[in-house]
Amino acid sequence: MWKTGTKFKKAFRYATAGFRALPDFIIIGAMKAGTTSLFSALTQHPKIIRSHTKETHFFNSHYHRGLYWYRSNFPFARRLAGGGKTGEATPQYIYHELVPERIHQTLPEVKLIAMLRNPTERTISQYFHEVRKGREDLPMMKAFRAEEERLAGVLRKDDFANPLYIHASYKKRGVYHEQIRRFLRYFPREQLLVLDSDEFFADPAGSIKPVFQFLEVDEAFPVDGIEHKNIGWNRTRVEPEVYEYLNDYFAPHNRELYSLLGRSFPW
Fold it and tell me: Looking at the predicted structure, is the pLDDT value of residue 233 above 80?
């Protein structure tokens, strides 16, 4: 019964896709940086109506399905009358090299939100995530040191659907300046809002206001609490040498990011 109902709902959304809106905003990443919490907070606002699922994965995994399929994930356009907004959040977008151009070709005026996290902490969090999902069996430091060798052939072939590109790209996902630059090749700076995950969770009320401003909805709307979502249960102690290795690796990349954005983060 449940599967039948779900299938019917999908069919209905697809059949009515022509009457549905396209997103006004997309949270593009980063993975393990709090995008689920941000999306949950934003969609408390009465003027922001969420996509059917938080992560549509259209521009990275389902692009071949076409724009009609993508529209089927969003609310009816009439529901946005009077200044309503809709959007989605797929944190894989910021990392996928083909996504910026695809988004621009489809939605040249869309607003983009990037939530960045201390790349050292983000990398470690992703490692535990992959272990939890049964996709990683190397010890932590070995996995981090093996990344370049693991990805070499994949990147040489631009094989962006390869599981290694998706799941073994621990450090590469934290090289934010390269990812942001790819989007800025297609979008003006004013269409991209960059947030710091630590600042967001430290001051949710203060951090959400500029996001509401960016989306042109009432910034005074009080969000009813923001909590960490998708916290892993399997995290264990991380050796100091891991932090030293990752901090050294990311230091020059972080400086590049600060220069690009004209602001620094406490990383």
Answer: no
- pLDDT score recorded for residue 229: 64
Query: Model's pTM, two decimal places?
Result: 0.93
- Identity (one letter) of the amino acid at 168? A
Find where tokens 């069919």 sit. Answer: 11
Position 6 confidence tier, pLDDT thresholds 50, 70, 90: confident
Q: What pLDDT score was predicted for residue 4?
A: 57
The three state secondary structure string of the chain is CHHHHHHHHHHHHHHCHHHECCCCEEEEECCCCCHHHHHHHHCCCCCEEECCCCCCCCCCCCHHHHHHHHHCCCCEHHHHCCCCEEEEECCCCCCCCCHHHHHHHHCCCCEEEEEECCHHHHHHHHHHHHHHCCCCCCCHHHHHHCHHHHHHHHHHCCCCCCHHHHHCCCCHHHCHHHHHHHHHCCCCHHHEEEEEHHHHHHCHHHHHHHHHHHHCCCCCCCCCCCCCCCCCCCCCCCCHHHHHHHHHHHHHHHHHHHHHHCCCCCC
Q: How far is CA 163 from the centre of its chain?
A: 18
Answer whether residue 115 shows pLDDT above 50: yes
Per-residue pLDDT tens for 161-177? 999 999 999 999 999 99
Phi-psi bin for 82: left (phi > 0), alpha (psi -120 to 50), beta?
Answer: left
| Type of residue found at 16 | T
Structure tokens at 95: 């990392």
Calpha distance 128→134 (Å, rounded) = 10
Question: What residues contact 122, with CB distance under 8 A and at least 6 apart?
Answer: 30, 31, 32, 33, 173, 174
- Going by C-beta distance under 8 Å and a sequence separation of 6 or more, which residues neighbour residue 261? 180, 194
